[in-house]
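Preliminary data (for renewal application), NDP complex.
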Amino acid sequence: MKNIPLILMGVGGVGRQLLQHIVSCRSLHAKLGIHLRVVGVCDSKSLVVASDMFSMGIGDDILLEVCRVKLDGSSLSTLSGSGEFQIFMNSEMMKKMIDVAALLGKSTGLAFVDCSASSETIGVLNQVVDSDCCIVLANKKPLTSTMEDYNKLVSHPRRIRHESTVGAGLPVIASLNRILSSGDPVHRIIGSLSGTLGYVMSEVEDGKPLSQVVKSAKSLGYTEPDPRDDLSGMDVARKALILARLLGSHINLDSIKIESLYPEEMGSSVMSTEEFLGCGISLLDKNIRERVYQASLNGKVLRYVCVIEGSRCEVGIQEVPKNSPLGRLRGSDNVLEIYSRCYSEQPLVIQGAGAGNDTTACGVLADIIDIQDLFS
Ligand SMILES: NC(=O)C1=CN([C@@H]2O[C@H](COP(=O)(O)OP(=O)(O)OC[C@H]3O[C@@H](n4cnc5c(N)ncnc54)[C@H](OP(=O)(O)O)[C@@H]3O)[C@@H](O)[C@H]2O)C=CC1
Ligand SMILES: N[C@@H](CC=O)C(=O)O
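Predicted structure:
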């Protein structure tokens, strides 16, 4: 049986769903000759590490209790069953993860799975690649930091997987890698890459107020922890940057033209997420309703579109024909058109659910299985 030891960072919507998938896929994975051994799980404050990380990992009953505890909003330090695991808090966490990476990385191998939404994980990830660890990301921030961080993280392409950073569970990165590795140059990507903004645009088009729709998107697990990351266009810009860098552009986030759906006065330095959702956002209802109406007069609909073409990389609202691939998009679906030498007249089109905890966690799990060859 091939053992894949892993540490999960982030047990929010996606991380919890991943743990549940890992537990429920035990017999399927056993048939494939694979065992996923979870040796550590952390959130923003605590790290739980298996006492016997070389052969046992954290038991499934405890992994499911981790999910229950986090869903209740409690701290991981309230977990029962001491002896099987140890808990490290705050500043001890990072040191412990790097120690575990040094112990397991070059012996059994170890995968760090980042399902957080934080840029604080970049420091750990940068260090554990030096211990030959693998990295699997749903979190876009590590790949959208500086070019130096990016180059370090992708320096061993076999050891990094990040399919869920763009299009959730859709095979976007894998498809692009296949095209690029065959020498077929990609010259244009256009698409709708935000499940939240796709859902928002199609629901607003159906007459619902933006403020109500964004709250639904949050409760459906589509938004970032702070939905302003979606509404500012920043989350789509991160996806665009990941794609542009994959195509070979040496650009940073500040090279991307980004249209925000809210003004600076509603930014995170001015009001909390709760204040924004409680009263700020309803002030945006009228403007978007008018824009939708104006577009409809021309037989068009609004979509939040990402365009990458040569050195041009921009994300923002466009009026598109109702009866076009972008215009027909509904709900949280993403669509991506890829134009290359082989796909010149008719693009390669990838479409489907582009957000949600289940599909995202499936994408992460498939990435972990995809690196199985690196483990014994
Ligand atoms: N939801 C979706 O449809 C998709 C999400 N993604 C990405 O998946 C990631 C997770 O999203 P989601 O689960 O919705 O987010 P949540 O906000 O639900 O969960 C985030 C988790 O990360 C933890 N965390 C925060 N800081 C750190 C840190 N420094 N170290 C370790 N853990 C930390 C949080 O801890 P605490 O509980 O203590 O706050 C929380 O458990 C995001 O990066 C998102 O962009 C990607 C594709 C689709
Ligand atoms: N908030 C994101 C989640 C996936 O990356 C989105 O809405 O697309």
